[in-house]
């Protein structure tokens, strides 16, 4: 009887050690981020905002717009025509953000809201010519001040 208790305690001890190792291993995996897992749209800006690149002289490659069009079609994504969504790096000023859109010939939608909320949201919705949404998104994605640029997706709620 004493041998059975010893065996049971030994097995339980092994199980506890294995579970502890698994727990610690998973925790380390979460803490360590491999460089190749950092999203492509994340950019670090210089402290001097005058060195922020702009979209003035960037030429948009047609493959970018074609790839984006294929992704939207594959995902069956519908979007508001003539509208883009833009999110800026958090260290970019409101004036620099407005300047980026202005140089890309994108009109800010609801500028009063943007002026009041940019410090917390760092987002804007822009108006572009219908049919130029994909090219403008690609153009914006080339700028290091942009965290995210995309079409203004429409979502349908199913009942």
What can be said about this structure in brief?
The protein has helices at 2-31, 62-74, 94-103, 111-121, 133-141, and strands at residues 78-88, 107-109, 123-127, 146-154.
Blueprint (SSEs and pairs):
Blueprint: H1 2-31, H2 62-74, E1 78-88, H3 94-103, E2 107-109, H4 111-121, E3 123-127, H5 133-141, E4 146-154
Antiparallel strand pairs: 1-3, 1-4, 2-3
Helix pairs in contact: 2-5
Key structural traits:
alpha+beta, single chain, 159 residues, Alpha-Beta Plaits
> Which structural class do you get from the secondary structure elements?
alpha+beta
CATH fold title of the largest domain:
Alpha-Beta Plaits
Strand content is: 15-25%
Euclidean distance between termini CA atoms: 63 Å
Task: Give the full name of the CATH homologous superfamily of the largest domain.
Answer: Peptidase S8 propeptide/proteinase inhibitor I9
Total helical segments: 5
**Secondary structure: helix percent:** 40-55%
The total tally of domains equals: 2
Spatial order of strands in the largest sheet: 2-3-1-4
Give me the CATH architecture of the largest domain, please: 2-Layer Sandwich
Main beta sheet: strand number and arrangement?
4 strands, antiparallel
**Mind telling me the C-alpha Rg?**
25 Å
Low-pLDDT sequence parts = 27-59
* Element-level helix/strand string: HHEHEHEHE
Shape summary = elongated
Strand runs, count: 4
- In the CATH hierarchy, what is the class of the largest domain? Alpha Beta
Q: Please state the average pLDDT score.
A: 78
């Amino acid at each position: 009887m004493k041998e059975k208790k010893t065996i049971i305690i030994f097995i339980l001890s092994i199980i506890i050690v294995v579970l502890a190792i698994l727990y610690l291993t998973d925790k380390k995996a979460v803490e360590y981020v491999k460089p190749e897992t950092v999203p492509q749209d994340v950019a670090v800006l210089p402290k001097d905002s005058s060195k922020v690149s702009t979209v003035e002289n960037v030429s948009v490659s047609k493959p970018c717009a074609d790839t984006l069009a294929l992704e939207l079609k594959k995902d069956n994504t519908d979007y508001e025509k003539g509208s883009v969504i833009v999110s800026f790096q958090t260290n970019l000023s409101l004036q620099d953000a407005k300047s980026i859109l202005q140089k890309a010939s994108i009109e800010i939608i609801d500028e009063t809201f943007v002026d009041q909320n940019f410090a917390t949201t760092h987002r804007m919705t822009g108006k572009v010519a219908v049919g130029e949404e994909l090219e403008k998104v690609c153009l914006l994605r080339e700028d290091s001040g942009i965290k995210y640029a995309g079409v203004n997706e429409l979502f349908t709620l199913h009942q």
